[in-house]
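> forwarded from #structure-qc
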């Protein structure tokens, strides 16, 4: 079989794309229509294919392949000219020499015995090849000629002589013109005289239905019907024959787009709801922004069809993400949020309940479980809350979907799925779309197929597509993952719901992404207050003439007799009444509750009022036995006949040694935290670039058999039979996408520890949007807690401006604790303070404290994001170790590690108290020792930077009452922690003492690229830190 494929492949001519030699820029083309003049970029045009045989071209390959397979089975089953050709090719004839025309055959003595020519066979073969090519041309390029634009002013083919589309009676001139466009100039030798000839249909088409041969005229008509009406199917780039065949069957089979009366009436009713909802809002709140759906009303039946069909296929949970456009309509008519809850969002007089700062109405999320009326099955629908930042929610939806699949054991995505909606400009422009697509087929990130729906209103705010993208369609990004793209004219609701059905079936069949491109228009401006005529005057003149789609569809059904005018009007009146009644009820609402807009409830985690069940955190320590057990697993290979790398054996041995000595290094401390939580039934997922081994080769959570390819072992999953599963996964090289994904994963359940590790801390800035828009303010905007953990390697180690700083200043600047107010101290101060903060920022100086903070993350009675600045050189620093004693029952995370050395013995004699955080502590203690200042300088480590340990900092400065106060950091003065800690330390002393600075000078870059300069800077700030006169002249 393999040989057969290779041989066929050798015979196959190059495809157009393989043969492409130049992709030359072309002049933009101007199209004039009744609606005005628009200019478009031309599509990329490839040069003519280079065939390996003179008569072969890119589109005849399937035919030749079929012939070849038939010949292999029985050489007599094909025409003799093919027989000769295949024999010669198999005998190794070079390209161009294998084919012998019948005349030449007789002239070549050594082949003369093989065949004798038949006069018209060559023409017959050529004509069949031409028909085959024609069919293929429609399959490949037909979408360029489909009538996709409801306004009729755009033409994706960008040709200045657009052909009439949808012709049914074949006019040879039109046909030639069509072929010229479809085949980039080729005409295949077919002529008018061929139109009535009957041709056998290849197996790569379904236009014949039950017939295997058709007259050319009918072939063309059927191809036109399948590919050049209101649906443009873009799929021939998919490199899977079965998938291509599946799509061909769905769109080519005659009569495939039939709807029952019932379906048409349901569709009309859905169009009524979609249209009248916007009209109702416009009538009641004409001066309010709502980003209405006018011009793309068929989005609502589109989504409902996808959901119905998916529910029919067994899906029980649909997670959706979408931008502003039509969001309220989707909430009302797809998710079925109570209308009064939506309407009261428009009431500016309503007071907000004090649950956070809230968000505008077209960003809020929603969760709803209900019965799907079409399938009569339960379905849970959620729309994720999102920020204004377009497409940022995409990976979040995927992560949440993956988590829901994980928790219900849905390994193939049969029960849980995601739908992502996009605007055309954002889909083409935002890189996160690409990052999200690239997660779609990765084992630890796949959600087994997402259905993407693009509300392609052919404009982005004020920008035309020709300025918004360099690709013909806004959807081209989907081609990278071989997702089929169904373009559809949104003014044809039946075509829309047909492609949506096919999209849902595609997902259910292949578990891969698919795109529905709803080509529509935007009746109003970008929002209802906006004037579109400033920038798109001709387009909007056309839009003003455009009959609304509901009206068009209703007239069609009335003309067909599917509904009467009276029934249609009753349907409208019925929905208007529903809206009016809800509007009246909405006036009874007195308070706006954001919690009504929760997209991810955590049943059972909070009290019924949504409060934490306690305000305390138990000890995060473990028994000696438990520590030992996890330590043993961490230093062993729990499967038999598994050969690990020699270097790793040494690492495991040294771990075993540490366990015997009752100590942990960084990696082992992390192991203890993860292992114990897993044993307590908490799922752990650690994701990021190269996290399995660890960027710094310290972790080694996945062992690789050195003798068997791809054989791996995760010891953490061998802890105990009833443990929770551990997922550790190397991610794609993405920060924005992967962090968004993990954030979404963490939303699904509070009973899991989800960690994202940046390769180096500074790389988090390519995911800044997820941090700024979701992690930092998520709870305040959407009353939604999240316990995600960010591990950000950080430290000035002479590695240059990059790879050094995780930018602590940025995280700290976004903390919501007040620098100037000393919070009231109480017994549960530490837990309360954590409850009130927007996120927790820590820099642990030893593995024991890291262990505790990870465990605390789960043992707290609520969830907050945790930002951990993690070390690099400390991973192997001999002093950065912790004893089991610091991790036993009764021990806790230390927010501040006070001075415990010689200075603590006579605190009154201490002249200086240095506060610091993280790795610089080790540099300070070394320097202090060298200078013999252990008794005069105290050093306290602030391990939890935010919320700031006001109480413990105060206790420490009170203890060393005669000392001056210094903040020492290795970062530059305008970076790091200084600006954050200084006012807070001053608050603890009631501003009685100044807080001096010892650290690097202000700088633009986070670190120098020069190792020597790095060391000089270090020396300088250490000198300052220990020079007791350093600040005298500043006093
Ligand atoms: C990341 C980001 N950049 C810019 C904006 C500002 N903005 C809001 S809507 C919009 C146009 C979006 O166009 P499109 O994606 O086609 O959706 P439409 O509004 O046309 O439905 C822009 C630029 C934004 N919200 N997000």
């Amino acid at each position: 079989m393999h040989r057969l494929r290779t041989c066929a492949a050798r015979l196959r001519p190059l495809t157009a794309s393989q043969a492409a030699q130049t992709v030359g820029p072309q002049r933009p083309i101007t199209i004039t229509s009744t609606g005005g003049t628009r200019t478009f970029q031309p599509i990329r045009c490839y040069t003519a294919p280079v065939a390996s045989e003179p008569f072969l071209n890119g589109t005849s390959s399937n035919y030749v392949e079929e012939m070849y397979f038939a010949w292999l089975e029985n050489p007599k089953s094909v025409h003799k000219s093919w027989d000769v050709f295949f024999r010669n090719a198999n005998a190794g004839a070079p390209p161009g020499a294998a084919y012998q025309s019948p005349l030449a055959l007789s002239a070549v003595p050594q082949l003369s015995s093989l065949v004798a020519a038949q006069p018209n066979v060559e023409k017959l073969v050529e004509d069949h090849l031409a028909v085959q090519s024609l069919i293929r041309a429609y399959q490949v390029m037909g979408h360029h000629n489909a009538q996709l634009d409801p306004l009729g002013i755009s033409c994706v083919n960008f040709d200045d002589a657009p052909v009439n589309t949808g012709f049914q009676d074949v006019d040879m001139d039109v046909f030639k013109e069509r072929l010229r466009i479809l085949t980039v100039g080729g005409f295949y030798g077919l002529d008018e005289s061929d139109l009535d000839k009957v041709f056998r249909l290849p197996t790569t088409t379904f236009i014949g239905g039950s017939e295997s041969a058709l007259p050319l005229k009918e072939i063309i008509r059927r191809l036109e019907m399948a590919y050049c009406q209101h649906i443009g199917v873009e799929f021939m780039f998919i490199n899977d024959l079965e998938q291509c065949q599946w799509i061909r069957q769905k769109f080519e089979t005659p009569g495939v787009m039939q709807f029952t009366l019932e379906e048409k009436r349901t569709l009309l009713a859905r169009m009524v709801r979609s249209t009248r909802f916007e009209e109702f809002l416009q009538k009641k709140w004409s001066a309010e922004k709502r980003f209405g759906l006018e011009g793309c009303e068929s989005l609502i039946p589109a989504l409902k069809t996808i959901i119905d069909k998916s529910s029919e296929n067994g899906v029980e949970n649909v997670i959706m993400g979408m931008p502003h456009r039509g969001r309220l309509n989707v909430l009302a008519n797809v998710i079925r949020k109570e209308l009064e809850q939506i309407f009261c969002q428009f009431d500016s007089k309503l007071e907000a309940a004090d649950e956070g700062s809230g968000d505008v109405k077209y960003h809020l999320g929603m969760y709803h479980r209900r019965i799907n009326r079409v399938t009569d099955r339960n379905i849970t629908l959620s729309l994720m809350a999102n920020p204004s930042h377009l497409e940022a929610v995409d990976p979040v939806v995927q992560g949440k979907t993956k988590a829901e699949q994980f928790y219900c054991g849905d390994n193939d995505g049969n029960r849980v799925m995601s739908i992502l909606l996009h605007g055309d400009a954002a889909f083409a422009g935002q890189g996160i779309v690409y990052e999200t697509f690239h997660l779609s087929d990765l084992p630890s990130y796949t959600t087994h197929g997402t259905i993407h729906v693009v509300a392609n209103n052919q404009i982005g705010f004020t920008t035309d597509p020709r300025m918004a993208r360099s690709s013909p369609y806004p959807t081209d990004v989907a081609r990278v993952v071989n997702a089929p793209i169904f373009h559809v004219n949104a003014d044809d609701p039946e075509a829309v719901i047909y492609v949506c059905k096919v999209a849902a079936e595609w997902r259910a069949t292949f578990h891969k992404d698919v795109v529905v491109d709803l080509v529509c228009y935007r009746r109003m401006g970008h929002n209802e207050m906006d004037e579109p005529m400033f920038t798109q005057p001709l387009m909007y003149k056309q839009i003003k003439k455009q009959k609304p789609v509901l009206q068009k569809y209703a007239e069609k059904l009335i003309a067909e007799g599917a509904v009467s005018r009276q029934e249609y009007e009753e349907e409208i009146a019925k929905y208007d009444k529903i809206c009016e009644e809800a509007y009246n009820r909405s006036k009874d609402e007195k308070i706006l509750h954001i919690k009504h807009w929760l997209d991810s409830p955590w049943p059972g985690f909070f009290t019924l009022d949504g409060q934490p069940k306690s305000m305390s955190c138990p000890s995060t320590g473990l028994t000696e036995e438990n520590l030992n057990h996890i330590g043993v697993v961490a230093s062993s290979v729990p499967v038999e006949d598994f050969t690990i790398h020699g270097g790793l054996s040494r690492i495991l041995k040294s771990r075993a040694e540490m366990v015997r000595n009752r100590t942990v290094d960084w990696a082992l401390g992390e192991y203890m935290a993860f292992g114990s939580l897993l044993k307590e039934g908490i799922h752990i997922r650690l994701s990021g670039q190269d996290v399995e081994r660890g960027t710094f080769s310290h972790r080694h959570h996945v062992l690789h058999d050195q003798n068997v390819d791809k054989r791996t072992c995760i010891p953490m999953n061998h802890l105990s039979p009833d443990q929770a599963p551990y997922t550790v996964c190397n991610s794609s090289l993405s920060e924005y996408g992967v962090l968004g994904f993990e954030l979404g994963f963490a939303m699904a359940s509070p009973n899991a520890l989800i960690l994202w590790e940046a390769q180096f801390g500074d790389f988090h800035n390519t995911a800044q949007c997820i941090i700024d828009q979701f992690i930092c303010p998520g709870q305040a905007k959407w009353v939604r807690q999240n316990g995600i953990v960010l591990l950000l390697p950080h430290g000035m180690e002479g590695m240059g401006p990059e790879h050094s700083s995780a930018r602590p200043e940025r995280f700290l600047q976004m903390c919501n604790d007040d620098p100037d107010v000393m919070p009231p101290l109480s017994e549960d101060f530490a837990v309360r303070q954590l409850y009130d903060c927007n996120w927790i920022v820590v820099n642990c100086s030893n593995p024991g404290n890291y262990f505790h903070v990870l465990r605390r993350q789960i043992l707290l009675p609520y969830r907050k994001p945790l930002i951990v600045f993690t070390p690099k050189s400390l991973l192997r620093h001999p002093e950065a170790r912790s004893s089991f004693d610091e991790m036993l029952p009764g021990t806790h995370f230390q927010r501040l590690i006070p001075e415990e050395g010689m200075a603590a013995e006579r605190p009154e004699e201490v002249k200086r108290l240095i506060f610091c955080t993280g790795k610089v502590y080790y540099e300070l203690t070394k320097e202090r020792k060298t200078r013999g200042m252990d008794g005069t300088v105290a050093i306290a480590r602030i391990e939890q930077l935010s919320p700031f340990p006001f109480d413990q900092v105060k206790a420490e400065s009170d203890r060393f009452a005669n000392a001056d106060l210094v903040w020492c950091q290795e970062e530059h003065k305008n970076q790091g922690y200084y600006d954050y800690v200084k006012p807070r330390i001053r608050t603890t002393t009631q501003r009685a003492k100044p807080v001096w600075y010892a650290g690097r000078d202000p700088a633009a870059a986070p670190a120098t690229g020069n190792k020597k300069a790095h060391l000089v800077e270090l020396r300088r700030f250490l000198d300052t830190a220990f020079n007791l006169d350093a600040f005298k002249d500043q006093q």
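QC bot note: The two ends are 87 Å apart (CA to CA). Residues 325, 388-390, 423-426, 455, 457, 459-461, 522, 526 surround thiamine diphosphate (CB under 6 Å).
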